[in-house]
Amino acid sequence: MYKNTNTNNTSNTNCVSIIVIGAGLIGPRHAEHVVNRPNTSLFAIVDHSAKGPSVAQRFQVPLYKDLNELFEYCDKYNVKYPDAAIIATPNHTHVPLGLHLASKGIHLLVEKPLSPNAQDSKTLIEFCKEKNVKLLIGHHRRFNPYIITCKENLPKLGQVVAVQGTWTLCKPDSYFEEKPWRSSQTLGGGALLINLIHDLDNLQYLFGPVEKVYAELLMKQRAQRGSDVNAAVDEGAVLTLRFANGICGTFLCSDNVVSPFSFESGTGENPTIPFNDEVAGFYRIFGSHGTLSVPDFKLYHQHNQPVRSWLNPVEEHQVKMAFEVQKEIEVEEQDDVVMFGIATPDNSPNTKEDNLFSHHSHVSSEKPKPFDLQVDHFVNLILGKETEVKCSGEDALRALLCIEAVGKSIETGLPQVVPSIDDIEMNMELFT
Ligand SMILES: NC(=O)c1ccc[n+]([C@@H]2O[C@H](COP(=O)([O-])OP(=O)(O)OC[C@H]3O[C@@H](n4cnc5c(N)ncnc54)[C@H](O)[C@@H]3O)[C@@H](O)[C@H]2O)c1
């Protein structure tokens, strides 16, 4: 443990102090965003592994090996507890850590999945309410410009009828060798719980709750190299989905095929996975009046045809994300300054597309960073500047319930109704 020099107990009402628990793959990424935002300070790193000291040193903050050590230190030296915590540890540890932190009144941003099982997740949700603690879950794609643009453009499709999605890529052996929990179903490993849950959250964010699911497990290729085929974690599945509002979908998830058709490859959101800007259609959303392909944002339509018909051509419109529109405006303005020595006003017809599909807002021309937006939202919730949680415990529980239904469908060979979150009991054993 390094000494915590943060002995100033007067709280700055506009700055939120945050600990990051977990110095593995994703924890340091959170820490990086915490140190770079204007209203946050990184209080400490908490991790017992050999990686802890180098991560704490990199961010020049104290390291505690566990929460007990942190709280003991604060109590002994009269240091104010951190305001908030980001839990970036293996899935099965999220709820015990969350309960401990919430019991001290510390607000929580918990990495997805909320936990590997629904009862434990429900317990943490209810406990946070009781303790008046904010709970945000790290389904950060809700802050991603691709998902935001997709949601904004759904009305242009008329009645959405169906969706088709793909998340396919190849995790190397080292991913599993480095961290044994990723190969253990009971500790929350497997492509369904680690990865598919992201896409199911995206789809529920776009189309509302999934009501029924049927799934077929993909063949396990990694297990064939190991000894116990049945004990190995899943490598993905194929799903059919029915949403409560009648929309139907299919989805293919595999973490063991070579393919660029994944959210990460197609959007470049994960710095460790190469961005492929030619990927088209990892989601395709079909509506009565058009089809939207994501992440390429081709909008297929027949708005200029007398009737919607297979006898008429389908036209293509390029939807742009808000930051791309803003970038174009800035480039045009710059060109005008160079050519005429004057800036073109923003509302000039020359600087705005005025067709049916354009949308404009005054936004930055930089590609937004979802982890920045997520931590800003977390801070705003804590400071009371925002009240509606963008990914609540209930939202995350809904995604988890879909994953559990996928698991049951694979087990039974039958379609499964996804239970309502109201039907989930708490796990009171967590308090004994
Ligand atoms: N949002 C995303 O895109 C994204 C990406 C990757 C991982 N994740 C999620 O983040 C979480 C962490 O994944 P990871 O791949 O970084 O894991 P990891 O195994 O690489 O790192 C976890 C770290 O937590 C530490 N740890 C474990 N238990 C602890 C405890 N009780 N107290 C303190 N430290 C403890 C470990 O020592 C390890 O360093 C998982 O829930 C995963 O699903 C999310």
Automatic annotation (TrEMBL):
InterPro entries: Gfo/Idh/MocA-like_OxRdtase_C, Gfo/Idh/MocA-like_OxRdtase_N, Gfo/Idh/MocA_Oxidoreductases, NAD(P)-bd_dom_sf. This is Oxidoreductase. PANTHER family: BILIVERDIN REDUCTASE A. GO terms for molecular function: nucleotide binding. Residues 17-139 form the Gfo/Idh/MocA-like oxidoreductase N-terminal domain. Residues 156-413 form the Gfo/Idh/MocA-like oxidoreductase C-terminal domain.
